[in-house]
Design a protein that fits this description.
Number of domains of chain B: 1
Strand order of the largest sheet of chain A: 1-2
Number of helices of chain A: 20
Oligomer: heterodimer
Order of helices and strands of chain A: HHHHHHHHHEEHHHHHHHHHHH
CATH superfamily of the largest domain in chain A: MetI-like
CATH topology of chain B: MetI-like fold
Largest sheet of chain A: 2 strands, antiparallel
Strand content of chain B: under 5%
CATH topology of the largest domain in chain A: MetI-like fold
Helix content of chain B: over 70%
Order of helices and strands of chain B: HHHHHHHHHHHH
Structural class of chain B: mainly alpha
Distance between the termini of chain B: 31 Å
CATH architecture of the largest domain in chain A: Orthogonal Bundle
Distance between the termini of chain A: 49 Å
Radius of gyration of chain A: 32 Å
Structural class of chain A: mainly alpha
Largest sheet of chain B: none
Strand content of chain A: under 5%
Largest interface: A-B, 87 and 84 residues
Number of strands of chain B: 0
Helix content of chain A: 55-70%
Chain lengths: 420, 284
């Protein structure tokens, strides 16, 4: 605005524009202050720790701090032939400090992960150092090389050099059943050791199928609930809401009872003659159990958003479709179905995201072939204590969820999610 | 859903097929809950319907497992129930207070960066629970709060607030802001206005958000498994260990109690929903 335009003044002589801006800013600050406690709380206790998962998953500082002098002297080494006397000397220097601090075991463990065989030769070197067998007035290179033939092998020195950077992508590669080989190339692990990729695929497969089952079962009943008169639909709604409010573990327990070999479902199959009494199928501790239990548990999350969308569709639209010459099927497909797409999107998104991070039910009814990636994360958190690996897998899963969320936002729009 | 008389046969068949599917799905949804009920009164130790139960023999039923739940030696349920209620109540209070205040700020039209802040606030609901569990565990371990009640309460506040934020902002979207301006013009200070005018009007939303938060905390097991020590065991954790080791009828007795509890919660949630719908109806 140019200065020549005549400014409107408030009663106290301040230009109206400034006065308004001031009031606006005050309101903004007020609104923000209301949100601030929760926002700060979440950032400290939740958002930062997720970030910490990332630094933890790529962190490889331990060894960088263990062999500072070695890595410094290795900077000039070309990595093709055996390193110089200087590198050997600084390695011995670092190693002696580690022996004093009793941390040489950790070093051996870490190096052994990089290349098999380090455990033995580090132990041998440790014994020599402990007995003061290494004479520092003579060539240290020669003496170390005498300790074990692997110290003469350049590949082992290359392995040490590879551990120099303070960050590593090893955990992420491991989660994909891959690793960096001697030439810094990404390689797959041998076929019998590829366990994680199966788990990822299975997780996606289970989540997809559960979503499809939930959709196939949820759509008809949501439609029925939305079209029935209020007094019937309220009653039937209880069938959806009671499981929704009931503890997850209670529902899992009831499926364990139903699906066991002497359980009600098998009894029923025997009575109607589908299977013989002594040939009852195993329905638990495999994928069938996981699918059945997860579908029932997640079904309300499909029905509720579908219902809330269908409720808003006027029945006259279907009548109009039919009166214009469409058969009921055509009217449904061309008129009703497209209008329910926001509900389908919201329901499928909810169910898929919940299913992909599922942990409790697969662990209880899934058995060995029902374990999913979440179980693996929990296993590494609690049993092997490889927290950085658990973090890496968790973040990969989170990345997947965010991609799905982003896609959904592009296709349908997030604002359509309702809680029933 | 009576069909008109002129309906063609194929649509008639289709209609009955559709009703059959729906019936099947409703049974699929609700029946598992009813299986637990009779089995928890089983006089025997097995988790199958005994011959006596099938013949409705009164001797085949007993309150044995309920007695075991309450009086059983070295039984963990008393401590677990106490912990569960304490944790859930404090977590609900925390979520409701933090969530409602934040929702008030979020629904102000002056709020800057609304989208990104809303996304942050409801992120614990979107992120898979196992990841939240790992992240929260890292924080609590660092803060020295692992294996404490405080730590679990804080964790459940994190998981519960998104529900409060969502329900309260939804209630506030139908809220007529001129009433607060009227209160202010009559000389009321903002806190007083909130307590006397705004809160009573949005109370249904606040309570139903609180119910969500309560159930989330009461039912939550993934994060507690990471955080809890022996002293902080909760009902879900105890059920989880029980189900992993051996499915005992005592668990079914506990499960029956939980189903009764969830029925009560369902009824109150429904009453609240209808009330708030009525209120919103008046505003329009």
């Amino acid at each position: 605005m140019s200065s020549e335009t005549k400014q409107i003044l408030t009663t106290d002589g301040i230009p109206l524009e400034i006065s308004l801006k001031k009031a606006e800013r005050k309101n903004k600050i007020k609104a923000f202050l209301l949100v601030a406690p929760l926002l700060i709380f979440l950032i400290i206790t939740y958002i930062f720790p997720i970030g910490e998962m990332f630094t933890r998953s790529i962190d490889d500082k331990m060894i960088t701090n263990m062999l500072p002098k070695t890595f410094k002297s290795m900077e000039t080494w070309d990595g093709k032939k055996l390193p110089s006397e200087e590198v050997f000397a600084s390695f011995l220097y670092d190693f002696k400090i580690l022996v004093e601090k009793k941390e040489h075991g950790k070093l051996a463990q870490r190096l052994n992960k990089e290349k098999n065989g380090f455990n033995t030769i580090t132990k041998k070197l440790f014994r020599q150092v402990k007995r003061n067998k290494i004479d520092e007035t003579q060539s240290i290179k020669e003496q170390i090389m005498k300790v074990h033939k692997r110290w003469r092998n350049v590949e082992f020195w290359q392995a040490i050099k590879r551990t120099a950077p303070p960050y590593t992508s090893a955990k992420y590669l491991k989660a994909m059943d891959m690793y960096l080989n001697e030439d810094n190339k990404i390689t797959q692990v041998s076929e019998d050791r590829r366990i994680h990729r199966i788990l990822w695929l299975r997780t996606v497969e289970v989540a997809l199928f559960v979503t499809v089952f939930c959709f196939l079962m949820g759509y008809p009943i949501a439609h029925l609930l939305a079209t029935l008169p209020m007094k019937y639909s309220n009653l039937l709604m209880i069938c959806v809401l009671l499981p929704f409010w009931t503890s997850l573990l209670v529902r899992t327990a009831s499926w364990m009872i139903l699906l066991q070999q002497q359980g009600v479902v098998n009894d029923f199959f025997v009575i109607i003659g589908l299977v013989s009494d002594d040939n009852r199928p195993e329905m638990m501790y495999n994928k069938v159990g996981t699918y059945v239990a997860m579908t029932q548990i997640l079904l309300p999350f499909m029905v509720l958003p579908l219902y809330s969308v269908m409720k808003t569709i006027s029945p006259s639209l279907m009548r109009a479709g039919k009166s214009l010459g469409g058969t009921p099927f055509v009217a449904f497909w061309k008129v009703y179905f497209p209008l329910t797409i926001p509900g389908i999107g919201a329901g499928c998104l909810l169910v898929f995201i919940l299913a992909i991070g599922y942990y409790i039910t697969p662990a209880l009814v899934g058995g060995a072939s029902g374990t999913l990636i979440s179980n693996q994360i929990a296993y590494h958190m609690k049993t092997t204590l490889d927290w950085s690996f658990a973090s890496a897998m968790g973040l990969m899963l989170l990345g997947g969820v965010l991609v799905i969320y982003w896609l959904y936002n592009k296709l349908v729009g997030v604002d359509n999610i309702k809680l029933g | 859903m009576a069909l008109p008389k002129y309906t063609e046969t194929r649509y008639r068949i289709w209609h009955y097929f559709y009703i059959a599917i729906c019936t099947f799905v409703f049974i699929f949804l609700i029946a598992p809950l009813f299986v637990i009920f009779p089995l928890s009164f089983n006089a025997e130790e097995f988790l199958v319907f005994s011959e006596g139960m099938k013949n409705l023999d009164p001797d085949a039923f007993s309150l044995r497992w309920y007695k075991d739940m309450v009086y059983g030696t070295k039984n963990p349920w008393g401590l677990a129930a106490k912990n569960s209620f304490i944790i859930a109540i404090f977590a609900t209070l925390g979520s409701v207070i933090l969530g409602t205040v934040a929702a008030l700020g979020l629904s102000s039209r002056h709020m800057p960066f609304k989208g990104i802040i809303m996304a942050t606030l409801i992120s614990p609901m979107i992120v898979p629970l196992i990841i939240s569990g790992v992240a929260i565990f890292f924080f609590m371990a660092k803060a020295g709060l692992a294996a404490t009640h405080t730590g679990i309460v804080l964790a459940h506040i994190i998981l519960g607030t998104p529900f409060v934020v969502i329900t309260v902002t939804a209630t506030l979207s139908g809220f007529d802001h001129s009433v607060t301006r009227a209160a202010a013009s009559l000389g009321s200070n903002p806190v007083n206005t909130f307590m006397k005018v705004t809160l009573p009007l949005i109370l249904p939303g606040v309570i139903s958000g609180g119910l969500f938060a309560f159930v989330t905390s009461f039912d939550e097991v993934v994060v507690v498994l990471f955080l809890a020590g022996l002293e902080n065991t909760t009902i879900p954790v105890q059920m989880w260990t029980g189900l992993r080791e051996q499915l005992s009828p005592t668990i079914l007795a506990v499960a029956t109690c939980l189903i009764v509890l969830s029925t009560l919660i369902l009824i109150s949630a429904e009453l609240l929903r209808r009330r708030s719908e009525r209120l919103r109806g008046i505003n329009r």
